[in-house]
Amino acid sequence: MSKREEIISGLYSKNYTLKGMDKKRISSFFGENTFNDKLMKERFSSNIYKRIKKCIMGEEKLDIALADQIAHAMKEWAIEKGATHYCHWFQPLTGTTAEKHDAFIEKIDGKIIEGLTGKQLVRQEPDASSFPSGGLRATFEARGYTAWDPTSPAFILSGDSGSTLCIPSIFISHYGHSLDKKTPLLRSCKFLEEKVKNLLKLFNMNVNKVSSNIGVEQEFFLIDRELAMLRPDLLICGRTLFGARPPKGQELDDQYFGSIKERIMKFFNEVEYELYKLGVPVKTRHNEVAPHQYEFAPIFEEANIAADHNQLMMEVLKRTAIRHGLFLSLHEKPFDRINGSGKHINWSISADNTNLLEPGDNPSENIVFLIILTAIIKGIMEYSPLLRASIACASNDHRLGGNEAPPAIISIYLGENLTYTLNMMERGNIQKNSVDNKINLGFSAISSIPRDNTDRNRTSPFAFTGNKFEFRAVGSSQSIAIPVTMINTIVADTIDSFRIRIDKKMSEGFKLFEAVTSVVKEEIPLIRPILFEGDNYSQEWSIEAQKRKLPNLPDTPSALEAAKSPELLKILIKNRIFSSEELKSRYLVELEKYCKTIHIESQLCLEIARTKLLPAALKQQKSIAENIKLLKEIDEPESVSTKEIRRVLETISECINQMIPAIDNLEIKANEANEKEDLAKSAWLYCHEVLPLMNNLRELSDLLETLIDDNIWPLPKYYELLFFD
Q1: Looking at the structure, do residues 564 and 598 belong to the same domain, yes or no?
Q2: Are residues 38 and 133 in the same domain?
Q3: Residue 400 in domain
Q4: 6 found inside a domain
Q5: CA angle 661–665–670, rounded 5-degree value
Q6: What is each CA distance from 483 to 55, 323, 381, 389, 458, in whole angstroms?
Q7: CATH code at 699?
Q8: Bridge-partner residues for 284, per DSSP?
Q9: Using one digit for the tens of pLDDT, what is the confidence trace for 196-233?
Q10: pLDDT at 174
Q11: Contact status, residue 474 vs residue 344, Cβ threshold 8 Å
């Protein structure tokens, strides 16, 4: 019995205990591991609490005396919860999270006491010189600082090995350059708030708080860990570099929204329990389209907190998967010809908790909604390469444009109602939309069902879905911070340009309603190219998009190159979201990450082909040849069955003959790409020459997989990975 067979035979006898909620009300423990608003009210006097809230809102500077009081209370609470260490938890340019733990100890007069000072809370020097910086600092200029972000609650990460107080932070260089993904997000949130507030003043709306609100749908795969351990490509690259198509994939759609299996339900319950304690409001869980693919989705939160919580969700998913004997894949395309995983960002703007993207019963009269909607469309159209570049990476390239993901062409879907509204406005006919908002079912047991303002277009990269936009092109492993930064900045800048135009028209004698509708009418014909209601997957749309002069950036090198345009980058620099140095560094970091990712994949591809697949093929070749030799002695003249066996041998031999030079060609080209000093040229080679050679080698291997004895083939097959529970 092979190792694969041993693992598979034992799958159904495995039992994983449930840790978690066990009949508890979620509200009874939600957020118990966070230093949240409720806790601060309990731990501080009314005056101190008010000062802390002002600091969080940016209305008051945090002085060292107040920081000391917060640090002391935070430390006492953390120790009560079993924490022995604290860390500044930050998000470097790797796209993951980082932490350096320090114990709660201070030495005073020769004695060890527990302590956390305000200075330690507010700033740390983690060094962290090995993180990518794109030239913003050299290894010998290693000083970097983490600084506490008080807008996101501190939390305690607990495990069998102990508990740590995590303090959400930004990460900057000695000269103040951002070295992380969170700092630009915070800048963009502030910028959006400022510009939307200025716009709302035209409408006599003086609001206290404006924020971008985010709901993140997180997709992922779960594979039995012991089977995954036999797939070095899954373990190291996150995706299968080889694997023949199984007899059944997702054709029957029987996984999607199906009943959740018991083993997965136990995993879900523990994940939710841990996330609820951390204050992450997970709302939805379900099976996704592909076998062993799933999704979690939380309730909307402010962008900064949503970004932190999504990183926490990915971390908790990884930790919990190990406890349940599962392998978590957040890769965008772990299995070829099987749906990949995305991360849909649902984005809206709120002012004092009122959603500004709520159209109301008559959108044509809701002029605040109309001007913001038009600004969003205009901004996304003008700066779509920035949005495309924000989700560009080697893994997401495999997914974009497939039948489960939007294409690399950025377009916007509005739906029937809003399209009708804009059409009428362009013609100067402002009237109520007459589209029926009820669905009559034709029988009385169930009353008529309300119809949403828009249908859903699952193929659209940026779709309006009732009272929010859904950006569907983000990869499942990616941080949401940079895509949201781009959306916030693009929208805020365009809103401000519209405000200036409205103000000018009012100074010329226009009334407010006339000024707003005039700007909207002027923009409608200009924004039409990006509006598309049809199937974004179709070849016809690709041709049509080209006629409309919409950018088609199918891979990471082309997306990053297009986003380098000074005209595009100006919006980020003039509004101080990024400095020019920070933008250059990020371009280099993303290029380098792309090159390294594909180089690692190519090297592993070569190793697996040489040490596992080719030997298996040679073994099968030898076995069949020996069988034919034996049959020849007793099978004269040669029978039909022997001829068929000979044909199989010829096919295997031909694959081997092609495989050997294919391995050599891949090695030569991968080394050539790796030796290029120019990162852009290196990335181009990896994209256009190395990847096709890897795919060619895969095609040969996948054919061999269908011809070689199951006991000889060295890797678990797709049907084992995707259908064995």
Answers
A1: no
A2: yes
A3: yes
A4: no
A5: 150
A6: 27, 32, 15, 9, 19
A7: 1.20.120.1560
A8: 297
A9: 999 999 999 999 999 999 999 999 999 999 999 999 99
A10: 79
A11: yes
**Any domain includes 682:** yes
Q: Is residue 396 part of a domain?
A: yes
270 and 338 belong to one structural domain: yes
pLDDT band for position 133 (cuts 50, 70, 90): low
What pLDDT shows up at residue 140? 59
Question: Look-up: residue for tokens 């605040």?
Answer: 368
What local confidence, expressed as pLDDT, does residue 714 receive?
A: 93
Print the domain residue range for 107. Answer: 31-179
Using one digit for the tens of pLDDT, what is the confidence trace for 50-86? 998 888 887 788 888 898 999 999 999 999 999 999 9
Same structural domain for residues 545 and 514?
yes
Tell me the whole-structure pTM to 2 decimals: 0.92
What DSSP letter does each residue of 465-533 carry, written as one string? -SSSEEE---BTTS-SHHHHHHHHHHHHHHHHHHHHHHHHHHHTT--HHHHHHHHHHHHHHHHGGGB--
- Give the model's confidence band at 110: pLDDT under 50 very low, under 70 low, under 90 confident, else very high: confident
SS (H, E, C) 179-225: CECHHHHHHHHHHHHHHHHHHHHHCCCCCCCEEEEEEEEEEEEEEEH
Residue 189 corresponds to which tokens in the numbers above? 């949130």
Token pair, residue 247, equals 């007899």
Give CA–CA dist 16/192, Å, rounded: 47
312: domain CATH number? Answer: 3.30.590.10
Q: What is the spatial distance between Cα 401 and Cα 511, in angstroms, rounded to a whole number?
A: 46
Residues 686-714: tens digit of each pLDDT: 999 999 999 999 999 999 999 999 999 99
Closest by alpha carbon to 133, among 489, 593, 680, 558?
593
Which CATH number is 171's domain given?
3.10.20.70
Using the 8-state DSSP alphabet, how is residue 692 labeled?
A: H
CA distance 157 to 137: 31
